[in-house]
């Protein structure tokens, strides 16, 4: 047996061993604290050993017939492992490591040899083309979450071209599913780039920490302080904007609950100049060496930041699965911690969340432009009856998580949430039936829950913007990108606004948030439910944005429609930050006046 045969045999054995270990961890749920972490260490170790071996024996392996796509497949598996760890832990370093490996595959064209136009490869390599398609889909998802907009655009173009090429060269194969994936990313990019934020969705210490109010936050003391370490995020709507298993709304919430590294935010240097005029390549190491710079991620992360809260992002769950995940997180929740649950779903079975919308054609001195509200749908499931023969209210209305014709199996009732109120809970319901969950308040089994309930109807100047299947949820948008949501409300895109005007608008909003922070931290009427979470930067930011959202919608919609078009928080926040307070109203008025949209609002005595 030749030396090359020995090397090739060892390589194949390492591949098989790594693949077996990979299969054991691939389907481990991305929620709950994994108690068999040693399996993950084993599979990482196996792939790193395999990667190192192919680097050291590259020339002999190539002589023995190693294809470049096989190297790409190994790197792709490593990237997949890192991304899986990110989804389980929310640690940014894993996401960055995945990006590093995927970018190396792209820059070195590891899968290019599988191109059917190459003389060395033909239609027999259809399996390799599928590997390449999966690589592009996975790299697109990582780049989306990292906000690498230029890379997303490049990958989307190449991905579409690859699918078109596959359709042309493999006519006997159905690529319908891959065409749908292309349509998904195009649709996602259209929405995401329409409101490209000057500021990121992630929590930025540069933009979201307000120097003037920081001392008040630091000095704030509550009888009890809860730590925010765990969240569950899910949405279930027909035809909602999504890519892969990440919907637009969960994408926005996921980023909203993470830290942004200070400085360049994952911006990797392509080249930098030295004093002697030569350049250092930082693109992931040279293609010739075959070495991926494992330490490159250190330049793309910020070790000074606290860990991100862990987030279980669940795609289109059944009700039983959703409850099981909540139970797992609740069971493992550390003492003095709070769980955030974000649920976005329709309150009507098997329908889009495209509801009647309030639209404004100008000043609210007249409400002639109001769209009539539809009659309430009274076709509710049979409610639970208590011992007195009265409806409890906990099982009358619901959120719908399921396909058509699935009956009550797909109904999530307020009563289904009650058992989880034995532990601290921050619940955000974004639905056209969200107010049904007011029944939770006062029905808790140990801990009073913090509730954010969305409006039942969206409100826009242009009714076309209310299409949920095109723009996602308005309430979620306000909680994750408040100024962009404000711009969408009044009918224009930040991209249509001069950068200086938009930046000044951000400053107005930032000053308002800083002032409201001081009010909350010095209020004597702040409910303990809010007091015990106000010290957490993520939850505090959500509270401030809720105050803004409620105020904006209050001034935009006529008072007689407030029940339909305003969000609700329970327990109540102090009156000093209500829409009626001068400090809140004046801030919204300043912002509207700055953007020349005051006529769309009805301000009182301003």
Automatic annotation (TrEMBL):
One annotated GO biological process: DNA-templated transcription
MF (Gene Ontology): transcription corepressor activity
Pfam families: SCAI
InterPro entries: SCAI
Region annotation (Disordered) ranges: 359-381
Superkingdom per UniProt: Eukaryota
Protein name in UniProt: Protein SCAI
Organism this protein belongs to: Prunus yedoensis var. nudiflora
């Amino acid at each position: 047996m030749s030396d090359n045969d020995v090397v090739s045999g060892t390589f194949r054995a390492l591949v098989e061993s790594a693949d077996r270990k990979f299969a054991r961890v691939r389907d481990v749920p991305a929620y709950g604290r994994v108690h068999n972490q040693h399996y993950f260490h084993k599979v990482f170790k196996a792939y790193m050993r395999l990667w190192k071996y192919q680097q050291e024996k590259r020339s002999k392996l190539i002589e023995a017939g190693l294809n470049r796509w096989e190297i790409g497949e190994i790197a792709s598996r490593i990237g997949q492992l890192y991304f899986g760890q990110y989804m389980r832990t929310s640690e940014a370093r894993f996401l960055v490591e995945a990006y590093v490996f995927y970018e190396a595959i792209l820059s070195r064209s590891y899968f290019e040899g599988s191109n059917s136009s190459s003389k060395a490869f033909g239609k027999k390599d259809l399996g390799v083309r599928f590997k390449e398609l999966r690589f592009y889909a996975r790299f697109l998802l990582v780049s989306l979450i990292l906000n690498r907009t230029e890379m997303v655009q490049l990958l989307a173009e190449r991905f579409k071209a690859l699918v078109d090429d596959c359709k042309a060269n493999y006519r006997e194969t159905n690529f319908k599913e891959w065409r749908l994936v292309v349509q998904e990313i195009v649709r996602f990019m259209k929405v995401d780039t329409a409101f490209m934020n000057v500021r990121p969705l992630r929590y930025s210490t540069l933009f979201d920490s307000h120097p003037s109010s920081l001392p008040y936050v630091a000095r704030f003391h509550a009888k009890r302080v809860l730590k925010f370490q765990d969240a569950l995020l899910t949405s279930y709507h027909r035809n909602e904007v999504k890519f892969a298993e990440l919907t637009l709304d969960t994408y926005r919430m996921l980023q909203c609950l993470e830290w942004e590294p200070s400085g360049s935010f994952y911006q990797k240097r392509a080249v930098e100049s030295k004093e002697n005029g030569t350049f250092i390549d930082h693109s992931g190491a040279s293609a010739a060496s075959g070495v991926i710079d494992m330490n490159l991620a250190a330049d793309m992360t910020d070790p000074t930041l606290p860990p991100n809260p862990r987030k279980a992002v669940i795609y289109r769950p059944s009700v039983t699965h959703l409850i099981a995940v909540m139970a797992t997180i609740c069971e493992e929740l550390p003492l003095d911690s709070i769980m955030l649950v974000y649920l976005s779903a329709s309150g009507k079975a098997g329908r889009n969340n495209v509801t009647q919308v309030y639209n404004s054609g100008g000043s609210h001195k007249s409400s002639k432009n109001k769209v009539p509200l539809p009659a309430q749908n009274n076709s509710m499931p049979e409610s639970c009856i208590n011992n007195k023969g009265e409806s409890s209210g906990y099982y009358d209305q619901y959120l719908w998580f399921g396909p058509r014709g699935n009956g009550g199996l797909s109904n999530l009732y307020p009563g289904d949430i009650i058992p989880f109120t034995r532990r601290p809970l921050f619940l955000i319901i974004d639905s056209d039936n969200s107010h049904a969950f007011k029944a939770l308040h006062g029905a808790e089994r140990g801990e009073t829950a913090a509730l954010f309930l969305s409006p039942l109807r969206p409100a826009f100047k242009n009714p076309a913007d209310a299409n949920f299947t095109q723009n996602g949820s308005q309430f979620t948008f306000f909680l994750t990108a408040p100024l962009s949501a404000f711009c969408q409300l009044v009918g224009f895109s930040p991209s249509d606004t001069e950068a200086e005007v938009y930046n000044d608008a951000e400053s107005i909003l930032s000053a308002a948030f800083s002032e409201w922070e001081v009010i909350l931290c010095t209020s004597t009427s702040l409910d303990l439910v809010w007091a015990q979470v106000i010290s957490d930067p993520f939850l505090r930011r959500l509270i401030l944005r809720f105050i803004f959202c409620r105020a904006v919608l209050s001034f935009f919609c006529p008072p007689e429609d407030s029940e339909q078009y305003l969000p609700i928080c329970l327990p109540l926040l102090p009156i000093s930050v209500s829409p009626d307070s001068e400090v809140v109203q004046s801030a919204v008025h300043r912002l509207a006046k700055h953007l020349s949209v005051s006529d769309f609002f009805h301000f009182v005595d301003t």
